[in-house]
Design brief:
Blueprint: H1 7-33, H2 38-58, H3 73-76, H4 82-133, H5 140-188, E1 196-201, E2 210-213, E3 216-219, E4 224-229, H6 232-245, H7 252-261, H8 271-297, H9 312-336, H10 347-352, H11 357-381, H12 383-386, H13 393-404, H14 412-434
Antiparallel strand pairs: 1-4, 2-3
Helix pairs in contact: 1-4, 1-11, 1-13, 2-9, 2-11, 4-5, 4-8, 4-9, 4-13, 5-7, 5-14
Length: 445
């Protein structure tokens, strides 16, 4: 079995893990905004995540001969380690609930604020618990100033979101006034009936294509659709459709068009409700790492004398089994009992839904790699330091700006708060990683 013992190698794993864990939510956000049912996405994600755990277990967990201290993966499956297995599976359940909460909070408050609040709670609570579980393995004089930086980042992130929300509201108000003026102008003018044929050819990276049928918007399953408009309202409908497709990212028209075809309907919903979901997500994220720590190190001495601790790969396996089981139970229920305006679905629809499946599977693979590297780095250099990978906004905000137009066209105040928030996260990550020290493994009595 391969064991990571080098502090430098552990830090390298943490950096890679940070990028992975900050990137996969962006793929979830892409699929939700294209209208894919979130439960379909999550089930695909979980399957891919479990595949990564199996890969770690049967490769890194089986490389070379095992020892009494570090038995191979298959050997540990038949040992009496029920207490540690329970901690691992509770950790997987916590991550499942956190990821589901994240999936919905992305729609309400965006990828940037979701990752700011949830990741900061995970670090503040999770890092503190892990520090004491590891008996002060990490340097407290460096670790806790880093935690304080996360707290400051939470405050700055909240102000940044409030400022950006006010900017969006102002844009929508101006756009509504423009629509009223256009309609008044249309009523005073006369239009001729027209018969038009319009081809909508979608680009590989474009939004899901749509076709206008007698003034209503419907999803088109083909890549090329020809639509005939023969009534007086059709010309105006088409003009508005083309206008929405050409809307400037970050503009009022962009947000209105996004709401029209996304899976989770958030217009008119309370932002406070979205923040509550985000806080729940953060608490779940704060719990799974300490539970994984307990599973691998048995700080409560629940294992019988002579029974070795679970190695990282075995713990990751049980952790991912719980994540898979919980995901199937919760998401299958939500398929038939959806919330927040999500269309009702079924297992048959899920199996036949290949649109965007590759992105969901990639998200699961990337997240699985991120979790695996985080756990390997935490076992080698302390789980408190490994919680630095929860500084997801450093990566997530970049994706939010590049892919989703978050903060485009926002005020100078919003941009100033954004830069300040990211700066605090950068300092926090540096301090948490700098607190790493090599774990000394003592033989179990």
């Amino acid at each position: 079995m391969y064991v990571m013992k080098d502090e430098v190698g552990a830090i390298a794993l943490m950096v890679v893990s940070l990028w992975c864990l900050g990137s996969w939510p962006a793929l979830f956000n892409v699929l939700e905004q294209r209208g894919r049912v979130p439960m379909h996405t999550y089930l695909d994600y979980t399957i891919a995540n479990f595949a990564v755990a199996l890969l770690f277990a049967f490769t890194l967990g089986e490389i070379g001969p095992g020892t009494n201290e570090f038995p191979n993966f298959i050997t540990q499956l038949f040992q009496e380690n029920g207490a540690s297995v329970a901690f691992a599976m509770f950790g997987g359940l916590a991550l499942c609930l956190g990821n589901m909460g994240m999936q919905y909070s992305l729609a309400f408050v965006g990828i940037s604020l979701t990752e700011v609040v949830s990741a900061s709670l995970a670090v503040v609570l999770g890092t503190t618990v892990n520090y004491f579980l590891d008996d002060g393995l990490n340097r407290a004089s460096i670790l806790f100033p880093g935690v304080a930086c996360f707290l400051v980042a939470v405050v700055l992130g909240s102000f940044c979101h409030a400022s950006n929300a006010a900017d969006i509201a102002a844009k929508l108000e101006v756009a509504q006034d423009d629509v009223i003026r256009r309609k008044l102008g249309d009523d005073e003018s006369t239009t001729n009936d027209s018969h038009e044929y319009v081809g909508l050819l979608s680009d590989p990276g474009s939004k899901s294509q749509r076709c206008m049928v007698k003034g209503s918007e419907k999803e088109s399953g083909s890549s090329y659709t020809i639509t005939s408009h023969g009534d007086k309202s059709s010309s105006k409908d088409m003009e508005e459709e083309q206008f929405a497709d050409n809307a400037v990212v970050g503009s009022a028209e962009f947000f209105e068009d996004l709401e029209s075809h996304r899976a989770i309907k958030v217009k008119g919903k309370s932002v406070l409700f979205g923040l509550v979901i985000t806080l729940f997500t953060g608490v779940c994220y704060a719990a799974f790492s300490p539970l994984f720590n307990l599973a691998t190190n048995d700080q409560f001495h629940l294992l019988k004398p002579g029974v070795p601790h679970l190695v990282v790969y075995t713990t990751f396996f049980y952790f991912s089994i719980a994540l898979l089981i919980a995901s199937v139970i919760f998401n299958v229920y939500l398929l038939y009992n959806p919330v927040l305006g999500i269309p009702k679905s079924s297992l048959k629809n899920y199996i036949n839904d290949w649109e965007g499946r590759h992105l969901a599977l990639i998200a699961g693979l990337v997240c699985g790699l991120g979790n695996g590297f985080q756990f390997m780095g935490g076992q080698a250099a302390g789980y408190a330091a490994a919680d630095a990978v929860q500084a997801l906004p450093l990566v997530g905000t970049l994706w939010g700006i590049v892919l989703f137009g978050e903060y485009h066209g926002s005020s100078r105040k919003t941009h100033t708060l954004l830069v300040a928030m990211l700066s605090m996260f950068a300092v926090a990550v540096f301090l948490l990683i700098a607190s790493s020290t090599e774990r000394r493994v003592l033989p179990k009595p």
